[in-house]
Write a structure and sequence with these properties.
Chain B: It is a peripheral membrane protein. Chain B: Keywords: ATP synthesis, ATP-binding, Cell membrane, CF(1), Hydrogen ion transport, Ion transport, Membrane, Nucleotide-binding, Translocase, Transport. Chain B: InterPro entries: ATP_synth_asu-like_sf, ATP_synth_asu_C, ATP_synth_asu_C_sf, ATP_synth_F1_a_nt-bd_dom, ATP_synth_F1_asu, ATPase_a/bsu_AS, ATPase_F1/V1/A1_a/bsu_N, ATPase_F1/V1/A1_a/bsu_N_sf. Chain B: Belongs to the ATPase alpha/beta chains family. The complex is a heterodimer. Helices cover 52% and strands 20% of the residues of chain A. In chain A, α1 crosses α3. Chain A is of the alpha+beta class. Chain A is elongated. Chain A has two domains: 54 residues; 65 residues, no CATH class. In chain A, β3 and β4 form a beta hairpin. Chain A is built from five helices and four strands; from the N terminus they run αααβαβββα. By secondary structure, chain B is α/β, with parallel strands linked by helices. Chain B has three domains: 70 residues, Elongation Factor Tu (Ef-tu), domain 3 (Beta Barrel); 274 residues, 3-Layer(aba) Sandwich (Rossmann fold), CATH 3.40.50; 122 residues, Up-down Bundle (Lysin), CATH 1.20.150.20. In chain B, the strands form four sheets. In chain B, strands 8, 12, 13, 14, 15, 16, 17, 18 and 19 form a nine-stranded mixed sheet that branches. The longest helix of chain B is centred in the middle third of the chain and has 20 residues. At the A-B interface, β4 and α5 of A face α1 and β1 of B. β4 of chain A pairs antiparallel with β1 of chain B, so a sheet runs across the interface.
């Protein structure tokens, strides 16, 4: 039985092949990659493979992606302050969610750092009962 | 306490409260099916770890794959949707255990469903646990009195044994288990009845019957009903045995009835197929044997150093048209220490409990019988075996030699004696007395039809006049003087 190749594996392969290529050679590599996808009937998965590729490329080049949720819009200084804690190359998506009442909730890959007021209050409630 | 002190107390608590940042590992739901979910993320998730879905719904991680985690959902899965965030809890599924559980009806997670309020226990036990090892165990040596003549005499069950009750639908499997529970009154035994995939009406009837007979005082009922998700049916037996393990750890004896394991296997098959595990024979997954063996292996008799507690398991399996060669019945027969086989034919012939004594066996219980029962049952077993061989000739009764005739006659009387109505368990000393009387020919002057009546009168007579003899039999005394007394009582009654 032919082993199924996952989207992640395609993305990793693409990264390995295209890393450091430029101009005509990059185009050729991409052309070959698309042909490979056709051969494996994976064209439909294209968008997903690109998403995986993006994730993988960012990880390889040391970029950290954050999703910062706050109750109100944060000022640029605060945002920069938060970003600095996590490293130099940080890309962030800001979200506003009134339900967390205050504080911030930072999502990083598959971890959540929860410093929201809502969770604190819930903890306090449990402590008191 | 004045208002001020309360306010101060609260202030103190609030001041003491430390703000901490919670770090949680999460995943995202990518697929939801009937009672299962598949998630991405959760990279450090462990096998059988509890996962928290939004809305306080919990799940158990069962499939850890390269990219995804497959989990079964315990509870309402309809509110879970794609894209939901799932949190790791770092805990293994556990159920509340303790003396507070006795007399209650709970679901597979140990939550009360009898409307008598929340159960507040001090301890939790993991649902899945490795069975006690060789060095902590001891041979089975004490009896479990089922109160059913045919079983206590011919297929004895010991404390710590696993005895399968197998048969078609409507042959009285549950009846045997319930009678056994009812008969445990005053026998120093805790009972746990696990109903898997049963109709709620049937469970309600059982609860009512146990309450009526006072058996709920030492019984816990774990229910995973027919309308509950498959995951509940799958874990209910494990929850039941976890509750039993608590009592066994305290040095008590516990009886657990799993009614029935066929439905648990169905539930597990359903979950496995939904999680896309490869199907095997009868579409069951490859580890369906382990499903039952790890459950029944937790039945045990612990040695003195480990408290001396025991867990006796009475699993029930339902067969289709008497076919014991199907996958699940053969598996469970090979795991257990014997089986009680019930047959539709016997049931409609009026032989109830509808035991097939020929193929029912108990592999270890014999060493747990009390001495007088062992002596009396030996004769009974032999007579029944001879009777089975000669039964085919019974219709030519007139052409048979007197010896064969006598054997057939004894056999029919024995069969008549072993009939017993539901919900009427009999104390072991009475059983010994009547079996002795019949097998030694004292009842020969009664017609076969009158045996049941005569039995009743005999027991009435012997309890009234020979109480000390019954006490001796109950204690397990058996020598020539006791036998002599019994003989005397029998002849006195027949006169």
């Amino acid at each position: 039985m032919k082993k199924k190749i996952s989207n992640k594996q395609f993305a990793e392969a693409l990264f390995a092949v295209t890393d450091g290529l430029k101009g005509e050679k990059l185009n050729e590599a991409l052309h070959q990659f698309v042909l490979l996808l056709v051969k494996y009937h994976k064209l439909k998965q294209g968008a997903l493979i690109i998403a995986e590729f993006e994730k993988y490329a960012k990880k390889k080049s040391g970029i950290i992606e954050l999703e910062i949720t706050s109750a109100r819009k944060l000022s640029d200084t605060t945002l920069n302050h938060i970003k600095k804690i996590f490293g130099e190359q940080v890309e962030s998506i800001e979200k506003i969610d009134g339900e967390i009442l205050g504080g911030v909730k930072i999502k990083m890959e598959d971890k959540i750092l929860d410093a929201s007021l809502k969770t604190q209050l819930l903890n306090l409630k449990q402590n008191l009962i | 306490m004045s208002t001020n002190t309360i306010v101060n107390e609260l202030k103190k608590h609030i001041a003491e409260f430390e703000k901490t940042v919670q770090v949680e590992e999460i995943g995202t739901v990518i697929e939801v099916g009937d009672g299962i979910a598949r998630m991405s993320g959760l990279t450090k998730c462990q096998y059988q770890e509890m996962l928290e879905f939004p809305g306080e719904v919990f799940g158990v991680a069962l499939n850890l794959e390269e990219e995804t985690v497959g989990a079964m959902i315990l509870g309402d899965f309809k509110k879970i949707k794609e894209g939901d965030t799932v949190k790791r809890t770092g805990r293994i599924l556990s159920v509340p255990v303790g003396p507070e559980m006795v007399g209650r009806v709970v679901n597979a997670l140990g939550q009360a469903i009898d409307g008598k309020g929340e159960i507040k226990t001090k301890q939790f036990y993991p649902v899945e646990k490795i069975a006690p090892g060789v060095m902590t165990r001891q041979g089975v040596h004490q009896p479990v009195q089922t109160g059913i003549k045919a079983i206590d005499a011919m297929i004895p069950i010991g404390r710590g044994q696993r005895e399968l009750i197998i048969g078609d639908r409507q042959t009285g499997k549950t009846a045997i288990a319930i009678d056994t529970i009812i008969n445990q009154k005053g026998q120093n035994m805790k009972c746990i009845y696990v109903a898997v995939g049963q109709k709620e009406s049937k469970v309600a009837r059982i609860v009512a019957k146990l309450q009526e007979t006072g058996a709920m005082e030492y019984t816990t009922i774990v229910v995973a009903g027919a309308s509950d998700p498959a995951s509940m049916s799958f874990i209910a037996p494990y929850s039941g045995v976890a509750m039993a393990e608590y009592f066994a750890d305290q040095g008590e004896d516990v009886l657990v009835v799993y009614d029935d394991l066929t439905k648990q296997a169905w539930a597990y098959r359903e979950i496995s197929l939904l999680l896309r595990r490869p199907p095997g024979r009868e579409a069951y997954p490859g580890d369906v044997f382990y499903l039952h063996s790890r459950l029944l292996e937790r039945a045990c008799k612990l040695n003195k150093e480990n408290g001396g507690g025991s867990i006796t398991a009475l699993p029930i399996i339902e067969t289709q048209a008497g076919d014991v060669t199907a996958y699940i019945p053969t598996n469970v027969i090979s795991i257990t220490d014997g089986q009680i086989f019930l047959e539709t034919d016997q049931f409609y012939k009026g032989i109830r409990p509808a035991l097939n004594v020929g193929i029912s066996v108990s592999r270890v219980g014999g060493s747990a019988q009390i001495k007088p029962m062992k002596k009396v049952a030996g004769k009974l077993k032999l007579a029944m075996a001879q009777f089975r061989e000669l039964e085919a000739f019974a219709q030519f009764a007139s052409d048979l030699d007197p010896e064969t005739k006598a054997q057939i006659d004894l056999g029919t009387r024995m069969t008549e004696l072993l009939k017993q109505p539901q919900y009427s368990p009999m104390p072991v000393e009475n059983q010994i007395a009547v079996i002795y009387a019949v097998s030694n020919g004292y009842f020969n002057k009664f017609a076969v039809k009158e045996i049941a009546d005569a039995e009743k009168k005999f027991i009435e007579f012997i309890t009234k006049t020979k109480h000390s003899l019954l006490d001796k039999l109950a204690k397990g005394d058996w020598d020539e003087t006791v036998e002599g007394e019994l003989k005397e009582a029998c002849s006195e009654f027949v006169k």
